[in-house]
Amino acid sequence: MSRLNPGNVELARTIISRYPRPRSALIPLLHVAQEQEGWVSPEAMAHIAELVDLAPAEVLGTASFYGMFKREPVGRYVVSVCTNISCLLLGGEELLEHCERTLGIKPGATTSDGMFTLEDVECIAACTDAPCLQVNYRYFLRISHDEVDALVDDLRAGRRTDEVPPHGTLTRVRQDIRPERWVGRGAEGLPPEIR
Amino acid sequence: MAEQTEQAEKTTVTITVDGRQVEAQPGELVIAAAERHGVYIPRFCYHPRMRSVGMCRMCVVEIDSGRGPALQPACMLPVAEGMTVDTQSAKSKKVQDGVLEFLLINHPLDCPVCDKGGECPLQDQTLAFGPGESRFVEEKRHFAKPIAISELVYLDRERCILCDRCTRFANEVAGDPLISFIDRGNHTQINTFPDEPFASYFSGNTVQICPVGALLAKPYRFRARPWDLDQVESTCTSCSVGCRIALQSSSNRLVRKLGVDVDPVNWGWLCDKGRFDFEAINSDDRLGAPLVRQGEELAQASWAEALARATEALDRAGRRPGRESIAVLGGARLGNEDAYAWSKLARTVLGTDSVDAQLGDGLPAQAVLGLPRATIDAACGADTIVLLGPDLKEELPVLYLRLRDAVVNRGAKLVELSPVETGMTRYATASLRYRPGEAAQLVRSLLELRTGDDRGNGAADPRRQAAELLRADSVVCVLGRPSLAEAPEPVCEAAAALVDALPGISFLSALRRANVHGALDMGLAPGLLPGRVSLEKGRRWFSREWGSLPSEPGLDATGILEAAANGRVACLVLLGADPLADFPDRDLARRALAGAGSVIAVDSFLTDSARQADVVLAASSFGEKSGTTTNLEGRVSRLHQKVTAPGTARADWMIAAELAFRLGGDLGLDSLEAVWDEIERLAPSHQGITRERLSSPEGFDGIVVGDVPDASDHQAPPSMAQSDSPGISGVAGHVKVDTLASTGMGSEARPDPQSGDQPAGAPEALGQAATVTGPRGMGYTEGEEPGAGAEAEAVEATVEAEHGSGGGEDVFRPSGGGGDQGTTPQRPPLLSWAGPGTTRPPPPRDRYSLRLVSSRRLYDDGTLVHHSPSLAPLAAGAHLRVHPGDLQPLGVSSGTRVGITSSRGRAVLEAVTDPGVPQGTVFVAFNQPGSAASGLIDVGQPVTEVRLETTPQDGDPGSGG
Question: Is A179 part of any domain?
């Protein structure tokens, strides 16, 4: 069901070809899977395992190390509220509590309409603009409670989609790296027996 | 080289450990060097057979490498000249306290209900090195416990200390990375992928090496407490690799087998079949008394009655003319002494040479014994390993582990020649398929390519690659029977071609049956006598002691069964053989059992074949008798009795001696020791392998029979090069440290400075270890073992021999007294293989037929698996594996039941597409529950051709094979 689609399989093969060993492409491929479905399903992990010649357990081991790879379906918008020290001092906890009230869910949960998933996160590297949160990893800095409510309303109403992309697009895996910019020789640089 | 020696370069590294200067090997890890010199540094994750990871931090001690003392993990740091290690310093002690306090944050301390309690490194090392109390009062983390991660292994994640041993084993050693660290930080756990169990053939090893009770073996769980276990050193006889084991029992029942680390063989590992098939020994289905036929029924009888019936049948048959009036089939289940006694019984008292330990499922004995032999170490150390045999992962799993290690870690190159892909294929540099029956053609074509001038420019062509690899300096061929559905001749021809073309080549046999090599060495094959000599060349030597011998070579298994089917065998003895299950051609086996005048079965179970017998003599089994066994290298190692046999079951050699006596003969064999002494004295290849040597430290590894090149020329074992006597005698042995000795502490386990006492538990546990696992401790000890008298006897025999032979090479002393004085026979020469005789060419290819390939899976319907409740469900059942291109013409998809017809019979099986099966062939696993393979194979043909057809679907009950 949620294996990689044919276009993404092709993309996966391109990405794999950039590395000396297929397994090096594991994390980019997890991004591709998350981009496709919004989360990384067991089927997708099993498919990636086939593509990079690993056991599925190894793919799961890597995927589960990173909190930003979601292994369960999430809402269309993942709201990540920072509660680390700078934000904490400037109202991060209160911001999180406000989000809980606005969305009617606790961190880790998804709203019943499938629109929002709330999570509390450690530092997101915007301490100068605390308190802050991210929606699908796009920053909203020094955000007030009212602004949170407005943001939620806008997103529910389908506005500001230019600002906040669908969940899953974490990184630019669709890079067009022209041959003249290649560094190294990829698998060509390795002895044949370990290619 | 000589010049270097003269300079006497220092080849060791001097380090100081706890104030004592010691010599270490360059590259040796501090933890190993210290241990070798008697200083035990506590550890959980370090394992000498696996890569160090420095995961648990338990071995952190104060080490000064020249820049002042610093805390460093001893398992990650190689020794350096002048290094100072202080395992006793206040800092080292504080680290140990701290690490253990951390490791115990989440450990549930449910030791009273934990299998590991009492032999747990975490328990023991906490006692010896840990703090008395913890400052952590928080709730421990909780998981569902335990969860089954496979059919055989349970995982209790609460107990896990995340040492990475099981995951490293699965990945590095077994090559089955089916378990992994999942999640991160405090949430990290070991687990499988959802719905993908840890179905590795080697999963039991993770239970053995787990330093806590996180991994548990289903067959052992809650069966015993470690302090109730009693154990002996022995050898696993599940297959012919001959892994060394500790065999443990509680209340006279076998409860566990543990792998013992010996360098030349198993490195401490076991396969799951070997580890858990002791369940069969405990089975209620074991025969505890003889049975005799009364009409249609087999009824329990006394030994006197059963032996009388057997004697009568043999006596009657013996009076019939014809070389095949009595035939003895089987013997691979037997120990060497049993096989020798039966070999002697058959040749002397029964007067037949129609004996065969193989069941038409191996290779001609002359080839197995006569080809130049290689050890496992030699194979692993070769530049090129040629595989021409069955799927080693399925049939000889620990040999697979060794060869895999040679390829992955040491750069050996594998050339695989097989009819279908195998578990080794992914490790092969060149893996070539041949059509059944055409192995020799493939080998010859490679040898032609090899000598051809046309090198290079075909790097991608696996044939050229293979040919190139055959130019290597050292080549070892692992030779076995790739498929039971093709005759052995093509493989023999291929071997002959290799011998002709590659003068230095040697062969490692891949015959799988437990002691088949020992049985062949003891002469349980037509035309052979004990000690790898032919009947013809050994006749003079043996007849002096044995009396008259059969005048001409007898029949092999196929010949015996054919003769029986034609009514020419008056009495067929099945020596632990079940031809209905194990002979490739079940139709012939069935006709043979029906056509034999009478059938005597000597077995531990009432097998299908034994059910047809007139007399069934109950034999004791592995674990119930002592003796020796011989592995596929020809390595003799010892078996020890641990439990008593059920009822009145007897050792096979005793049954032979008893039958001889009743038939008016006398084998002259009255004890196990006497049998071995006679083997050592008479069997030319076994000369010098005395009982004293077998029970010495040398014998702990086993002693290789015959002139097999020393493997040390080829390789230095990797991690174990560090220690003098790896794994066994020292505290280095992970087996001992982890399990047998019930402790993680070395002999220098230090006193607890706080209490000033001996570390509690340590000395006692070590004492146990020393008596039980050390080569000396495991040696023959008074009372339990063959005994001091036997030793004295042996010494006497040697003295006698020296006097008697008057300086000659000969230890032979005719027992009958007198004989012809002038001509003392010379020891006969060992067999050398003359090459294959006449061979049948495979039939021309036929557009419509497919060639059948059949070999075994690890879990099949064999006697031991069938009677082991934990293993029996793992047999996958029979499927038809077929190339998608061959299924497509039938217009059916994978998963459909199709008909398969050969000249012998027909079956209906589920077809499974498998691109690893080349077009033109089909694969059916042999002897699976409900299997049809042996019903299809025709041993009269060089290959078995089959045709496929669609069958009525919708679960038509009439279509069952």
Answer: no
Please name the residue of chain B whose CA is at the shortest distance from the CA of residue A69. Answer: B183
CA distance A160 to chain B (A): 34
By residue range, what is the domain housing residue A135? 77-156
Q: Does domain B1-103 have CATH number 3.40.50.720?
A: no
CATH architecture observed for domain B291-361+516-704: 3-Layer(aba) Sandwich (3.40)
- Give the mutation candidate from B168, B183, B192, B384 for the A interface (greatest A CB count, under 10 A): B183
Q: How far apart are CA B665 and CA B315, in angstroms?
A: 12
Is A169 inside a domain boundary? no
Mean pLDDT of the A156-171 span:
83
SS3 track for B2-33: HHHHHHCCCCCEEEEECCEEEEECCCCEHHHH
Chain A residues in contact with B171 (beta carbon < 8 A): 58
Contact B182 A60 (CB under 8 A): yes
Over 90: is that where the pLDDT of B628 sits? yes
Q: What are phi and psi of A191, to 5 degrees?
A: -60, 145
- pLDDT band of B724, cuts 50, 70, 90: very low
- Report CB contact under 8 Å: A54, B193: no
Q: Which of B184, B191, B195 lies closest to A65 in CB terms? A: B184
- Is A86 a member of any domain? yes
Please tell me the least confidently modeled range out of A92-96, B285-289, B454-458, B702-706.
B454-458
pTM value?
0.88
Distance CA B603, CA B645 (A): 12
Q: A57–B184: do the CB atoms touch at under 8 Å?
A: no
Per the structure, how many domains does chain A have? Answer: 2
Q: Which residues in chain A have their CB less than 8 angstroms from residue B194's CB? A: 42
**Residue-wise pLDDT tens digits, B542-587:** 999 999 899 999 999 999 999 999 999 999 999 999 999 999 999 9
**CATH code for B374-509?**
3.40.228.10
The DSSP secondary-structure symbol of B486 reads: B
Residues 451-490 of B with CB under 8 A from A: 459
The residue to which tokens 């529950």 are assigned: B929
Whether A67 and A83 map to the same domain: the answer is no
Instruction: Report the chain A residue with the minimal C-alpha distance to residue B195.
Output: A42
Domain(s) labelled CATH 3.40.50.740 in chain B stretch across 291-361+516-704
3-state secondary structure of B401: helix
The CATH number linked to A35 is 1.10.10.1590
- Say if residues B474 and B714 touch (Cβ distance below 8 Å): yes
Tokens 């602004």 sit on residue: A147
* Distance from C-alpha of B159 to C-alpha of B108, rounded to nearest angstrom: 6
**Domain B850-959 in this protein, CATH class:** mainly beta
Q: What whole-number distance in Å separates Cα of residue B345 and Cα of residue B541? A: 17
Query: What was the pLDDT predicted at A18?
Result: 84
Partners of B600 in the β-ladder? B573, B615
pLDDT of residue A168: 75
For domain B137-281, which CATH number applies: 3.40.50.1360, 3.30.70.20, 3.40.50.150, 3.40.50.1860?
Answer: 3.30.70.20
Instruction: Enumerate the residues of chain B whose CB falls inside 8 A of the CB of residue A40.
Output: none
Coil, helix or strand at residue B716: coil
Which of B164, B166, B183, B193 best tests the A interface by mutation, with the highest count of A CBs <10 A? B193
Residues A85 and A58 grouped into a single domain? no
Min Cα distance A6 → chain B (Å) is 22
Same domain, A82 and A136: yes
Q: Which ipTM did the prediction report?
A: 0.88
Please give the structure tokens belonging to residue B578.
């079940």
pLDDT at residue B726 tops 80:
no
Q: Are B396 and B632 in contact (CB under 8 A)?
A: yes
pLDDT tens per residue, range B196-255: 999 999 999 999 999 999 999 999 999 999 999 999 999 999 999 999 999 999 999 999
Residue A127 lies in a domain: yes
